[in-house]
Amino acid sequence: MEFALLLVFALVAGASIVIAKYTDVGGNPYPFNRKESVFSTVEATFLSLLERAVGDKFKIVSRVKLIDLIECKPGLSKKARRAALAKAKNKQLDYVLIDKTTLNIVAAVDLVNNSNKSGHKAQKDWFVNGALESANIPHIRMKVKTGYKANEVRSAILYKIGQQPQPVRKPRTRTEKPAVLSPSQAKAHSTQTQLAEI
User: Fold this and answer.
1) Cβ(95)–Cβ(60) below 8 Å
2) Are 119 and 92 in contact (CB under 8 A)?
3) Region Disordered: start and end of each range (predicted)?
4) Rounded to the nearest 10 degrees, how much is the dihedral formed by the CA atoms of 180, 184, 188, 189?
5) Using an 8 Å Cβ cutoff, are 157 and 109 in contact?
6) Distance set, CA 89 to CA 18, 40, 68, 97, 139 (Å)
7) Which residue segment(s) compose the domain that 117 sits in?
């Protein structure tokens, strides 16, 4: 009889521990609320910019695990494979560009914030960079800043993946003006200078 009581007590105690493990103090096993957005303001803004810049050429996937892009080379020992996968497991990329037709991986894009106020990467992650380079996946790091234009982002990305040379800006040359200009020469020079600076 005492054994049966002890067994019932042990079962009740065990059930209490299991229930406590999966519930909060109020008894709710799912203590969650929905977030307002999947993206931070910076991430959403940059995603919109990426879509305008290269959305016609590539699908854009966000928050991709590094391990989803790479795999270990054949011939590694089990120990080396485990160590490499353990390093890669918790790494994440902000965006990945995928070819619309073949669905092949084209490039990885990371936002970089040197002030690190918005939580984005500040220091270069040498493991991520080395792993992507080893797998022949271009790694594009874009500074977080305002004022990007879609065509500039497109040009930088296409240059990085080797599909188009980055346009070369011609240096502006200033014409030397004579020491003394007549009124008509001064007006003509002023007009030429303004046009050269647009």
Assistant:
1) yes
2) no
3) 163-198
4) 10
5) yes
6) 29, 23, 9, 20, 18
7) 41-160
Q: To which residue do tokens 């977080």 refer?
A: 144
Structural domain tally of the chain?
A: 1
47 lies in some domain: yes
Average pLDDT, the chain: 79
- 0.90 cut: is pTM over it? no
3-state secondary structure of 60: strand
Residue 69 falls within a domain, yes or no? Answer: yes
Percent of the chain with pLDDT over 90: 49
Q: Considering the domain boundaries, does residue 67 fall inside one?
A: yes
String of b and e for 114-130 (b: at least 16 CB within 10 Å)?
A: eeeeeebbeeebeebee
Distance from the Cα of residue 19 to its chain's centroid: 40
How many Cα atoms sit within 13 Å of 156 on the Cβ side? 15
List pLDDT tens digits, range 14-24.
666 655 565 55
